[in-house]
Write a structure and sequence with these properties.
91 residues; Non-ribosomal Peptide Synthetase Peptidyl Carrier Protein, Chain A; 47% helix; globular
């Protein structure tokens, strides 16, 4: 499970990209595709770009699958896995 800090930063990015009010609650298990906010391909691309900036990581094409966008928690886990593999700071 990703850290609370990672989850909060992922939620911050999601809120900004989807233009969701900061007071709106986003649960860690909120579905990203098919859920209340039902991300489309453009939303996903925007979120990936902003996550790269927020976490100073490079998400290579093909390295992120649909499973990473199951919910907020899985997205946070994916981001943390990039850092553990030593990809933090690569741009």
């Amino acid at each position: 499970m990703p850290s609370v800090e990672t989850l909060n930063r992922v939620k911050k990015v999601i809120r900004a990209c989807l233009k969701v009010d900061a007071r709106t609650s986003l649960s860690d298990t909120m579905p990203l595709v098919g859920g209340e906010h039902d991300l489309d391909s453009l939303d996903i691309l925007l979120i990936i770009t902003e996550l790269e900036k927020e976490f100073c990581v490079k998400i290579n094409e093909g390295s992120i699958g649909e499973a990473a966008f199951t919910d907020v928690e899985t997205l946070g886990t994916f981001i943390e896995s990039l850092s553990r593999r030593g990809q933090a700071g690569e741009s």
